[in-house]
From TrEMBL:
It comes from Rheinheimera pacifica. HAMAP family: Thymidylate_kinase. Its EC number is 2.7.4.9. This is Thymidylate kinase. It catalyses: dTMP + ATP = dTDP + ADP. Coiled coil: none annotated. The lineage of its organism: Bacteria, Pseudomonadati, Pseudomonadota, Gammaproteobacteria, Chromatiales.
Length: 209
């Protein structure tokens, strides 16, 4: 990787420790003099945050079609990419993202078992050739992650899915990580200090420090 601004994404199942990891990575980058902005998906612009609320809300009067869920994720992503991510990178700011496109491929592709061709069409239309420079995938057994998430309070619509949904999502995450460059798998079942050590090592290696 060169000295230019980078797009770094943190991925993983709920309770994997993404928020905790992002604080650590932000500190790591700022210590090295990088101008960093953090994003989250779905969300990160006023409209995208409204879409986030809609997609997470439990719907009692109708079933949310998996295709609708996917389209809402990409609608939110389009807003974020156009209004925040691309302008920030163009200004030389590092973008540190809590979830991005890999989430759609894992949750909607793996968990919901949506057609990969459909997802790829949307990826191409929304993202063009925008790809993260580095993705840190925090891998965790969904039973452990959901237990951590449960301790925080009420579960949203997606978090209320059965364990099998999250197991399929994890399998898809691992499959993508094994087949693509610039994705590093972090063992997120370890204590926080060990996860942070793995993140530091991964960043040192990727950023050449
Ligand atoms: N979604 C989708 O389906 N498709 C898409 O394209 C996108 C998203 C972009 C977003 O929810 C939902 O949208 C998500 C996927 C879906 N749904 N589900 N289900 P969100 O943003 O609200 O939730 P999240 O992304 O899953 O984040 P989270 O639940 O807040 O998890 P986290 O950020 O990974 O974890 P954390 O807050 O850092 O840690 C959770 C707790 O564990 C906390 O109390 C920590 O202190 C503790 N923790 C953290 N690390 C450790 C370790 N190492 N050991 C022990 N305890 C730890």
């Amino acid at each position: 990787m060169t000295a230019a601004a980078k797009f770094i994404v943190v991925e993983g199942l709920e309770g994997a420790g993404k928020s905790t990891a992002i604080s650590h990575i932000q500190h790591y980058l700022q210590q090295r003099g990088k101008d960093v902005i953090c994003t989250r998906e779905p969300g990160g612009t006023p409209l995208a945050e409204s879409l986030r609320n809609l997609v997470k809300q439990v719907q009692t009067s109708e079933t949310v079609a998996p295709q609708t869920e996917l389209l809402l994720m990409y609608a939110a992503r389009m807003q974020l990419v156009l209004n925040v991510i691309k302008p920030a990178l163009a200004q030389g700011k590092w973008v540190l993202a809590d979830r991005h496109d890999m989430s759609s491929r894992a949750y909607q592709g793996g968990g919901r078992q949506l057609d990969e061709a459909f997802i790829n069409q949307l990826r191409t239309a929304v993202l063009g050739d925008l790809r993260p420079d580095l993705t840190l995938y925090l891998d965790i057994d969904p039973a452990i992650g959901l237990e951590r998430a449960r301790q925080r309070g009420e579960l949203d619509r997606i978090e209320q899915e059965q364990l099998a949904f999250f197991q399929r999502t994890r399998q898809k995450y691992l499959q993508i990580a094994a087949s693509e460059a610039n994705i590093i798998v972090i063992d997120a079942s370890q204590p926080v200090a060990s996860v942070q050590q793995q993140l530091t090592t991964a960043l040192d290696n990727a950023l050449g420090q």
